[in-house]
Design brief:
Strand 6, helix 14 and strand 7 form a beta-alpha-beta unit. The protein is globular, with a radius of gyration of 36 Å. Helix content is 38%, strand content 11%. It has 22 helices and nine strands.
Length: 529
């Protein structure tokens, strides 16, 4: 045999013995297999059990899933830093993997994600969750000047900033609904619809201009109406009365909300940009006395024909509320936009110097101009008034009055050889300085707004809240899970929203005008452009 020739002699007999006993047997499950007559028939029960066994094994094989890879923990070096990416491939070497989160966020915000756009354009208002502040409420109220909370932005602080901005929006809406004010009789109570129902309005606030328009203005433009009135409703005082909200915040909060410029005389006061000495600064030995802009101080201190001054109203109401809630943990939060942000600083400064015991004071200002000189900024700091300024890098209002440069550029110049020149300019009468801690956002970071958005959009309060809601950190893209609706922004700033998003909104068959008509009256509107 041929096979036998290839085998060793001592194995040949063994192979032949096994070959004789080998028989070709077919599978017992195959019906075509012929069994020899001598073979015993398989019983039906054994065959059925064997079939079930085969099917069970087959099912386990098909349902078997691949185990997920086990991720090994990343070990840090002695400097508590992550190890460098030393991948052998070209992409790993370029470190493109680190860019993936940003690329993913940009992709998530692109117009191709119709569901995201549709959700942000929906009429239903969605908010970031309100977590319990508890024992940390003083930190969120600025006890440590918001150190470590701004970049990256703490999620609880983001929600609080947006919430205080909506108090100012309620002031805008209340004024826009009824701006006229009688010059012959005291004003009626002003209705304010608050978005936060945990608060109750306790006092209306009025600002009066010390200047008037010439008589010929009424002859040339007799239809101006409320635009020329000297006294106007400018804000309100509200107190939190909901027990659950008080428990969440860790204290009972008193809010003073102030709107921005609206009437002609308020604009006229804004133009009176020369500084005057702050009332109460009578000590001539002070090297750098506090000085503030004349127009802002005029609106704050001037009394109207039938209304007290803004300063008198605020002091009386805060004194009354602190007496009512004496013994409770209280806080005072002053918030404002544009002109309201400037007046908020004057309100907080005067409250900090009152004779009665005043709770912790904090100011949340949006798009506020400079108010006073460096002496005024030092005075605010010495009186322990905490100020968080929300600033849009593209907003020109935040650069006036004074030197028309941003605070960021000013800091860079002071660190150069030209810093001595700026220090000398600080002592000049026309020198103005910002106050407090800055939270800087940028219109260019929004995936929805045009990078070259106009001045009105960059200063608009709704645009500010949109940017804050999407802000993560200075080196991160816009937050992909931003909650704030885009409906107001599209309605009021449609010329500054990217056309691609406008066209996609209509391609989704979202009738924005119908949505607005069917939508119940919103308790807060953005500032007028």
């Amino acid at each position: 045999m041929l096979v036998g020739c290839t085998l060793p002699a001592h194995n040949l007999n063994l192979f032949q013995a096994r070959r004789a006993s080998f028989r070709c047997r077919g599978s017992p499950l195959n019906p075509l297999t012929k069994r020899p007559a001598s073979a015993k028939p398989l019983q039906r029960i054994a065959s059925t059990e064997l079939t079930r066994l085969h099917l069970s094994n087959l099912e386990k094989l098909l349902q078997k899933q691949e185990q997920p890879p086990v991720l090994e923990p990343i070990e840090k070096n002695s400097r508590n830093e992550l190890p460098e990416n030393k991948g052998s491939g070209m992409l790993e070497g370029l470190g493109l993997a680190r860019l993936w989160p940003e690329m993913k966020a940009t992709e998530e915000m692109s117009p191709r994600h119709m569901k995201t756009l549709q959700r942000l354009l929906s009429k239903s208002q969605e908010y970031s969750p309100r977590n319990s502040l508890g024992g940390r409420w003083r930190e969120y109220h600025g006890s440590n000047d918001w150190s470590g909370m701004l970049d990256p932005l703490d999620e609880n602080l983001r929600r609080e900033v947006v919430r205080y901005g909506e108090f100012v929006q309620a002031a805008y809406q209340s004024f826009n609904s009824d701006p006229a004010m009688s010059a012959e009789e005291p004003p009626l109570p002003h209705h304010v619809a608050l978005s936060d129902r945990a608060y109750r309005v306790t006092k209306s606030l009025y600002a009066t201009s010390s200047v008037g328009l010439p008589d010929w203005v009424d002859e040339v433009a007799p239809d101006l109406g409320w635009m020329t009135q000297r006294s106007s409703w400018i804000g309100y005082v509200a107190v939190c009365e909901d027990r659950r909200e008080i428990a969440r915040m860790g204290r009972r909060d008193i809010v003073i909300a102030l709107r921005g410029t609206a009437t002609c005389l308020e604009w006229a006061e804004n133009m009176r940009a020369f500084p005057v000495q702050f009332p109460g600064e009578k000590d001539d030995s002070v090297q750098d006395p506090a000085m503030v802009e004349c127009g802002f101080l005029s609106l704050y201190k001037t009394r109207g024909a039938h209304v007290p001054s803004l300063a008198e109203s605020v002091i009386q109401e805060i004194q009354r509320l602190t007496e009512i809630y004496k013994g409770e943990t209280l806080s005072i939060t002053v918030t404002g936009h544009s002109l309201g942000a400037a007046l908020a600083l004057l309100v907080a400064d005067e409250l900090s110097t009152c004779d009665f015991e005043v709770p912790p004071l904090a100011v949340f200002s949006f798009g506020g101009p400079r108010v006073g000189n460096k002496g005024f900024a030092d005075r605010i700091k010495q009186n322990d008034v905490k100020v968080l300024r929300i600033v849009n890098s593209q907003d020109v209002i935040t650069r006036v009055p004074g030197m028309f440069v941003s605070e960021e550029l000013e800091r860079k110049i002071r660190n150069t050889k030209m810093g001595g020149v700026l220090n000398a300019l600080d002592k000049m009468p026309w020198s103005y300085s910002h106050v407090g801690t800055e939270l800087r956002v940028d219109t260019k970071h929004s995936p929805y707004l045009k990078p070259n958005a106009d001045v009105a959009c960059c200063h608009d309060l709704e645009a500010y809240l949109h940017l804050v809601d999407g802000f993560l950190a200075s080196n991160c893209p816009f937050r992909e899970n931003a909650k704030r609706s885009l409906l107001k922004l599209v309605h009021e700033q449609s010329a500054n929203v990217k056309k691609l998003y406008i066209s996609k909104a209509f391609s989704l068959k979202l009738s924005l005008e119908r949505e607005r008509d069917r939508m119940p009256m919103s308790p807060c509107l953005p500032s007028p452009s």
